[in-house]
Design brief:
This protein has a single domain, classed as MetI-like (MetI-like fold, Orthogonal Bundle). 69% of the residues lie in helices and 0% in strands. The N terminus is likely disordered.
Length: 312
Amino acid sequence: MSEKTIERPTTDEAALAKELEAEEKAAARQASLLRDGWADLRKRPLFILSALVIVCLLALAIAPSLFTARSPFSNGFCQLQNSMNGPGSGHLFGFDVQGCDIYTRTVYGTRNSIVVGVVTTIATTLIGGLLGMLAGLIGGWVDMLLSRITEVFSALPIIIGGLLIMSIWRTGDVWTVSFIMAILGWPQVFRIMRGEVISNKYNDYVMAARALGADSWRIAFRHILPNTLAPVIVITTMNLGVYISAEAALSYLGIGIQSPNISWGLMISDAQDRFLTSPHALLFPAGALSLTVLAFIMLGDVVRDAFDPKMR
């Protein structure tokens, strides 16, 4: 009577099967969260409204010449005889103290505000996300060192830190302002990414991958990162409006974007002393700034409600 040999899976094969099964479950869970979140977003009127406003703002930033035939950088654009004249035919927003068309300056000012917001958000996400992943994944003295550095930067608010640094730097352009705000703004993303990495790195699929000898980079980018994106997306979306308002505040105080660059904060600063006699010079750029910040904050709120499991 012949004996049948029963083949049993080896330890490595069993661990590999366990890893693959855990990976599939994690991927399915993440895909379900993103799919459900996107389906929920499309049903929210605030998302549609804020998205439409942001699309219009992006169009203004990318191609301002489509919305106005004038250029604020051309010779003869500002005429002192038009100083502080109110809205009229062909000049929807009137003129500022230098006799420049406020509508054209408001349209072209959109580009700087959007660029500062987007560049700063991308930079803070990359810096904070990478450092947070390193701190959470490696732990030990690396985590302790990065956490202490983060506490130092967190103690310095963006406006106060920007006042201090810009008063020394004195180079007011879009890239300088974006760089300074990115240096001061990354700790928030760091804390969120670090917490998410720590909560995910002991899951079954991560432990199985580690047991099979997967290197730290493979574990970080293939197993952990996809499951930490939702909260990071939420906070970066909300930060867009925060950075735009911070740039306007720095420019209003005279240390952000400087002339001949155009900034809504600069326009508000120039018009504040004449608000009672010529309110139009302040109300239109202030309205554009408020609408932009409100649109990004509303978008961040609905994205948070849709993608944050704790809010569902």
